[in-house]
Amino acid sequence: MLLRVLVALFILFVGLILVKVVLESAGNGSKGEEVKKQEERLGVALNWKIFHSIIGNFKMAVPGEFHHESEEIPLTDIEAVTKYDTYITENIDDVTYMVTVVRYPPEVRIMNSEEMLEKVMNEIINADQDNELKAYYMVTFDDMHPALDFIIQNKKMQTEYRGMLAFHTLYLLSVSSDMPKLKQGEFTNFIDSFRFID
Questions:
Q1: pLDDT of the chain along its 198 residues, tens only?
Q2: Which residues contact 100 (CB under 8 A, 6 or more apart)?
Q3: What is the Cα–Cα distance from 167 to 38, expressed in whole angstroms?
C-alpha cells in the first residue's frame, strides 16, 4: 500500500514539474561483450535481478521486483499527452529504488537538455522547504546522452538522483532512505547497471 501511494504521489509530482519545464523550455550503439559481462557480474555480486523494460527500452539490476504504474497527462497548450511509467521497489533495509520514464510527444521540442535537467532538479528541491541540495554535477551517460546527478537531503531522508535525456525521453533514477540506512555505493550500483537495450 505504501509503495502504491509513493508511486501515485511521485507520478503526480514529476508530472507537474515536467509539464512546467517542457512549456518553459519550449541511438544507442552496440555494447561490447565486456560491458555485458560486467552487467552480469554486477547483478550476481549484489544478488540483484536483471530487469528488462520494453517501455523506455532499458535494462538494469534491481534488488527486488519492480512495481509498475503508468499514467498519461495531457499537455495544456497542445493536443498531446506525456506518458509516464514509474518502477519502484524496496530492499530489506527499506531503501527505495525508483525509475520514472517520461516519454514526450513529438510535438514537444526540447531545446536545451542541460537546462531542462537543471529545472527538473530545482523543482524537486523547491517542493519541500526542508530540502537541501548537497551536491550536483553534469555527466555524460553512454558517451552521448546528457545527465545530471544530484543529492537532496531533508530532515527525514536523503535521495540521490540521476536525470537523463535520451530519445526524446526523460529517465529519472533515484535511491532514497533514512540517512543512517543509505549505504555508500547503493546509488552507484543502481545507476551503473542501467543500460539501453540494443
A1: 444 434 444 444 444 444 344 334 443 444 556 655 655 555 555 678 889 998 888 999 998 899 999 999 988 888 889 999 999 999 878 899 999 999 988 888 888 889 999 999 999 999 999 999 999 999 998 888 899 999 999 998 999 999 999 888 999 999 999 876 667 778 888 999 999 987
A2: 10, 11, 14, 84, 85, 86, 87, 170, 171, 172
A3: 24
d(CA 89, CA 74): 27
User: To the nearest 5 percent, what fractions of the chain are helix, strand and coil?
Assistant: 30, 40, 30
Task: Specify the number of domains making up the chain.
Answer: 1
Provide the sign of the torsion angle of the four alpha carbons 61, 64, 67, 73, taken in this order.
Answer: negative
Q: What CATH number is associated with residue 37?
A: 3.40.1000.10
Domain of 30? 2-196
pTM (predicted TM-score): 0.77
**Whose grid coordinates read 526540447?**
110
Instruction: Enumerate long-range contacts of 11-15, CB under 8 Å, 24 or more apart.
Output: 11/69, 11/71, 11/84, 11/86, 11/100, 13/127, 14/84, 14/86, 14/100, 14/102, 14/172, 15/71, 15/73, 15/82, 15/84
